[in-house]
Amino acid sequence: MINEVPFDELYQKAKACNSTEEILAVTKESGVELTDEELDAISGGWSSEKEPHCPYCDGTQFTHCSEGEADGTTTRSWLSCWKCGREFAPGEAIYK
């Protein structure tokens, strides 16, 4: 099973959040499951002033992709850059 959510749409919703709990609710509502690494990044602080950038081309628009099992568990999650087409783990994005 593959679930694709336009990253910029999800990002804009997350930027409007005022707490970690609100961010988690947005991701759950969108059908996105976060990895432990991503959860750590969120709980460590969220800055709506910084945007994620592709580590290869500095692009700022992505599609969030994930693969999972029939029971809904996510086995792999990655971002696909709209500008260069390269794929990378969410933790590899550069925030500036």
Question: What does this entry look like structurally?
Answer:
The chain is an alpha+beta fold. It has one domain. It has helices at residues 7-15, 20-29, 36-43, and strands spanning 2-6, 52-53, 62-68, 74-81, 87-88, 94-95. The strands form 2 sheets. A 4-stranded antiparallel β-sheet has the order 1-3-4-5. A two-stranded antiparallel ribbon has the order 2-6. Strand 4 (74-81) and strand 5 (87-88) form a beta hairpin. Helix 1 runs antiparallel to helix 2. The longest helix is centred in the N-terminal third of the chain and has 10 residues, at 20-29. The model has no long low-confidence stretch (mean pLDDT 77).
What are the main properties of this structure?
about 100 residues, alpha+beta, four-stranded antiparallel beta sheet, two-stranded antiparallel ribbon, 6 strands, about 30% helix
Major sheet details: 4 strands, antiparallel
The termini sit apart by 33 Å
Elements, N to C (H/E) = EHHHEEEEE
Q: Report Rg.
A: 13 Å
Strand residue content: 25-35%
Mean pLDDT: 77
Number of domains: 1
Ranges where pLDDT stays below 50 over 5 or more residues in a row are: none
Measured as a percent range, the helix fraction is 25-40%
**Strand tally:** 6
Q: How many distinct helices? A: 3
Structural class: alpha+beta
* Widest β-sheet, arrangement of strands: 1-3-4-5
The shape is globular
Write the layout of secondary structure elements.
Blueprint: E1 2-6, H1 7-15, H2 20-29, H3 36-43, E2 52-53, E3 62-68, E4 74-81, E5 87-88, E6 94-95
Antiparallel strand pairs: 1-3, 2-6, 3-4, 4-5
Helix pairs in contact: 1-2
